[in-house]
Amino acid sequence: MLPLLLGILMLSLPGCDSDKKAAAPTISQVAVQTAALTRDVEEGSGTGEIKPRIESELSFKVSGRVNARYVGVGDRVKTGQILATLDDTEQRADVASARASVESQEASLRIAQSVLKRREALAATGALSRQQLDSAVQEFQSAQNDLAAAKASLATAEDALVQTVLRADADGAITARTIETGQVVQPSSTAFTLAHDGELDAVFNVQENVLSARDTPPTIEVSLLSRPAIRAKAKIREISPALDTTLGTVRVKLTIENPPPEMTLGSAVVAHVRYGSSERVKIPWQSLYSLDGRPAVWVVDPASMQTQLKPVTVLRYDSATVVLADGLTPGDIFVVDGGQFLRNEEKVAFTDEAVQ
Asked: Mind listing the pLDDT tens digit for each residue in 47-106?
């Protein structure tokens, strides 16, 4: 009986060892890094265009058919230069008619004035009643009013004739044209857009959330898109109060300080904005997890080798890293890879070489 019991005991011992081995916890292998402060330069860039500070929308003030067009897009013009003309046959006829009316009213006024003088002389001798004199005065005043109205009509007709000729209101360059010879135009419809000579602006469409989240940048530089080496300093001149609801952008105009001659009207430029620099902790994108909807990072206690999901505050998301405002301090060991299935207070393992 004793040998049988000893045999059963010996057979059962290997089974106990295997159960202990099966019950031993599995330690996850993770890749880690050590948090450290690095120089964080906050900067950005955007593409825009060089545009004139002042731009005019030039149009005829009368309707008519375009008789001639003398300039096109890109042409330089001087103040007073003729840009286009309308067929002025109707306006010339109106001027002739108005002048004839003025001449007729002048003749009527002369007759009324002569009548008034004669009646004044007769009234002075008592040969004419007061009523007849007053009638002559009224006719004279009416003739004066009619002449004034005729002269006003003549001035209007002459102005309409002048308006059949469209002239440049400043020195500059034509940037847009909407008329052709033979086209019938309506009053105040834009015929040309004139960019005035003088100061130029760099104009950009900036995302509204960028403007609302930032202070005015202390340093701005603009460079030519085609020739980045050509640069100039700039400062914000105007931020549009209106939001483009389609793109979610706001128009920003920069004044270019001492622009190089290569930065001409219509040039594509890039604005380089630098807000400053500071010491920040940066982590790779894959290190970021979530704790109750907030950003968090797995931190490893080097003494116990246990994990803890620690909330962090994100300052900015860059293309390759996440810049933290707080949450990690220099020297903290955090998980870079292998944290998908970790739990709080779980033991992990990593090599010394993995701590960077």
From this structure: 999 999 899 999 999 999 999 999 999 899 999 999 999 999 999 999 999 999 999 999
In this structure, which long-range contacts are made by residues 85-93, counting pairs with CB atoms below 8 Å and at least 24 apart in sequence? Answer: 85/164, 85/165, 85/166, 86/60, 86/62, 86/164, 86/165, 86/185, 87/164, 88/64, 88/161, 88/164, 90/64, 91/62, 91/64, 91/157, 91/160, 91/161, 91/164, 92/161
Buried b / exposed e over 101-119, threshold 16 CB at 10 Å, is bbeebeebbeebeebbeeb
List the Cα angle 165/167/171 in 5-degree steps.
170
If phi > 0 it is left, if psi is from -120 to 50 it is alpha, else beta; for residue 317 that is beta
Rounded Cα distance, 59 and 335, in Å? 68
pLDDT tens-digit series, residues 281-321:
999 999 999 888 899 999 999 999 999 999 999 988 887 88
What's the CA gap between 105 and 142, in Å, rounded?
10
d(CA 309, CA 175): 60
How far is 126 from 130, CA to CA, in rounded Å? 9
User: Which secondary-structure segment (H or E) carries 276?
Assistant: strand 268-284
